[in-house]
Description:
Shape: globular
CATH class of the largest domain: Alpha Beta
CATH architecture of the largest domain: 3-Layer(aba) Sandwich
Number of strands: 13
CATH superfamily of the largest domain: HUPs
Low-confidence stretches: none
Bound molecules: adenosine monophosphate, zinc ion
Amino acid sequence: MKTGLTLFDTKSAERHEVGADENGNVRIYCCGPTVYRDAHVGNLRTFLLADLVQRTLIFAGLKVDLVQNITDVGHMSEDLAEDKMLSESKLKARDPFEIAQEYEAKFHQDLALLNAIPARAYPRASQSIEMMQELIAQLIDSENAYVGEDGTVYFSAESFPGYGELSGNRLKDLKPGHRYEYVENGAKRFHADWALWKAAGNRTQMIWPSPWGDGFPGWHIECSAMSLHYLGSHVDLHIGGIDLRFPHHENERAQSNSAMENQEVVDLWLHGEHLLFEGRKMSKSAGNVVLVSDLISRGLNPLALRLTFLENRYRSQMNLTWDSLKAADSTITRWREKYQDWAKAPFAAADEEISEAFAFILSDLETPKTILYLREIEKSDMEPGKKATIFKALDQVLALDITVAPTRTELSSEVEAMIVARAKARAEKNFAESDRLRDELLKLGVDVKDSSL
Length: 453
Ligand code: AMP
Ligand code: ZN
């Protein structure tokens, strides 16, 4: 069944219509977070891409079956060749599972603050070990995988004829020594092979028994095992950030297709471009990692982030700035205020305008055009009842809570003076005075949050 939504498919480098089964059900897999730290706004751009697709399909009358994994083991850092969970565990002297639990909860909290519709399932890698081992055993049986001398199980890249079709990285062009697989200890038969199950070696944490000895799963097999288990042998759409195209998705495709007798498991591969912040790649070392909590502590509505994403094409690299977030924040407040006014007028149908605005989204998620269209309607002399209908309808996809009355409370001049005095006390490190003022403000119902930025 067709859905009316066309998206740019990385593998064919063409736009395709997303498919659905005969009941109008669309199966989607989106690579989830590695839970050793907070998801930053870049990660959230990719997760909100999945939410936008989900909301678009629902608005078009379809049903969505979305699965998103939680990576809590097996994702190795490129520079240290160490499990990201265990590096963090060492650094913080904390149990890795406890860290995973904390950041998984925060991931869900962020998604809720950003109005994302929850996926049907969020399977954890650490709780899907059996599923992964079954798939690995199957790949060994079909001679797509082998047990190396070091007890590690490798996928044989050459056993999959279509290797490279997704990313363009053909085997003949992949030279030994590329950093696409972290061990180069001679146990691999071919340099482009990768580990499905890694022998524990000296590692003592996050390891499990297996038919091939104690060890832990590779990151790529996690997504094959989970998507095949939860969605079956046909996935309509697979979503992730552009950096996952190779090797993660290339390898996932090789594994899944090989396990399904070379049938094409994923119909359409959708990749979101990266987010930059104030012109630079977000990284801890650059000190420009931005979180949802940073927006909140600056007094910004988290949905402002959602609007900035909608104002940019998902396939273009995007530069987020505090200024663009502030501008988006005021747009949302203004739309909410205006909506309250428009909605006082009698209801008026606007089917044509709604279809026109939605058509942009159906065409490879051209949301910037929809936002522009709404800005024009806002300024136009269209009857208010019609404006209300259009904004309310489109908000089912945009999810900016436009119909919610803004909660901007005017601060009295007395409260404002107290806030200023407290900031001054804090700047002068007069913490006794700043704490006293905070308590006074709390009594007046004003909870002051201090930003670390
Ligand atoms: P991770 O938690 O590192 O496994 O990444 C989760 C998701 O975020 C993946 O789909 C990545 O491709 C995506 N991602 C990572 N960095 C960025 C970024 N700066 N902009 C957009 N997506 C990103
Ligand atoms: Zn994945």
